[in-house]
């Protein structure tokens, strides 16, 4: 077994990726196709017209306890489970927790049971740092060994899936690896990060110049690199792995870097964070204010020591790639 400073020997394996049409899933499929590994990609709906010849696409439909994964699982050594009912602000479903459990818990465990029966050796589960909690105190950082403190239906469902997978893996003899990433940014990012880039690009004045929080992010190339390392590294088996860039940013620092990379003059206005949070609460935007003003730091040094891993992309390079993709999309 290699030491924490050594890379494990890599032999070609057959890797399956669920959620292959998603932000992270697409990047995983592209990267696997550039290696000596074979890739099966599970799609919920239509299959992309252009795929590398090393990729075997499979349509599986929705993720649920009834999903038949037999065609997807044929010949696989490792499954990377990236499909999920993702977190959204202001979920309007009547019973969000039930809906998250239906997909993220029941659907995940059904896949894992079928994977174990099909002879899959390792199951890599993309969870979320929200399992640890929503915010860290000044000077503190989440660790993989912390007691979970999920506070919303999405995070609760992810923790329940983690727990079920560990129990199933122990019974069935299938290795389980759990990866908890924070916010992921990179080419093709959507949601809040895309909105932030649009604000910067349009020169919208932003009252975030005084925000001095600290948040751990992870660039898409770094997350993909770590996930693929976890498909084979012997020391990853049975572990909870925290993913991060290794450089924590304040919201104001992140915005200043985006202004610089996008060639825009900074339009940050310094407003006390407490006043911002109070005003946001009055407007029903408290969750957004907490994300912009609160801290969420992760200790990723254990990941680096355990796996001998170094993020291949710096924060600035990750932001540059993200902005370049955004610019190309704007020109289309």
Please supply descriptive tags for the structure shown above.
332 residues; alpha/beta; Rossmann fold; UDP-galactose 4-epimerase, domain 1; 2 domains; 7-stranded parallel sheet; 40% helix; 12% strand; globular
- The count of β-strands is 9
The CATH topology of the largest domain comes to Rossmann fold
In terms of quaternary structure, the protein is single chain
Number of domains: 2
- Mean residue pLDDT: 93
Task: Explain the layout of strands and helices.
Blueprint: E1 14-18, H1 23-33, E2 38-43, E3 55-59, H2 70-73, E4 78-81, H3 96-117, E5 122-126, H4 153-172, E6 175-180, E7 183-185, H5 191-202, E8 217-219, H6 220-230, E9 240-242, H7 251-261, H8 273-282, H9 286-293, H10 301-307, H11 315-331
């Amino acid at each position: 077994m290699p030491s924490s400073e050594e890379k494990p020997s890599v032999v070609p394996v057959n890797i399956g990726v669920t959620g292959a049409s998603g932000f992270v899933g697409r990047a995983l499929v592209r990267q696997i196709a550039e290696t000596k590994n074979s890739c099966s990609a599970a799609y919920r709906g239509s299959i992309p017209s252009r795929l590398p010849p090393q990729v075997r696409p499979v349509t599986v439909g929705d993720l649920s306890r009834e999903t038949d994964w037999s065609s997807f699982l044929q010949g696989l050594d490792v499954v990377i489970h990236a499909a999920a009912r993702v977190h959204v602000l202001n979920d309007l479903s009547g019973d969000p927790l039930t809906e998250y459990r239906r997909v993220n818990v029941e659907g995940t465990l059904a896949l894992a049971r079928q994977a174990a029966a099909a002879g899959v050796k390792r199951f890599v589960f993309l969870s979320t740092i929200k399992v640890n909690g929503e915010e860290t105190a000044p000077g503190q950082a989440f660790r993989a060994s912390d007691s979970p403190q999920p506070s919303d239906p999405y995070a609760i469902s992810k923790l329940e899936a983690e727990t079920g997978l560990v129990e199933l893996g122990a019974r069935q003899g299938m290795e389980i690896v759990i990866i908890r990433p924070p916010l992921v940014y990179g080419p093709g990012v959507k949601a809040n990060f895309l909105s932030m880039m649009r604000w910067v690009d349009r020169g919208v004045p932003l009252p975030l110049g005084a925000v001095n929080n600290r948040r751990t992010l992870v660039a898409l190339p770094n997350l993909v690199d770590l996930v693929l390392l976890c498909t084979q590294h012997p020391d990853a088996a049975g572990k909870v792995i925290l993913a991060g860039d290794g450089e924590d940013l304040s919201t104001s620092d992140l915005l200043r870097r985006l202004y610089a990379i996008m060639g825009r003059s900074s339009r940050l206005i310094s407003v006390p964070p407490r006043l911002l949070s109070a005003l946001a609460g009055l407007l029903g935007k408290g969750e957004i204010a907490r994300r912009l003003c609160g801290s969420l730091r992760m200790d990723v040094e254990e990941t680096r020591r355990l796996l001998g891993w170094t993020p291949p992309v710096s924060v600035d390079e990750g932001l540059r790639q993200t902005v370049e993709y955004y610019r190309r999309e704007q020109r289309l």
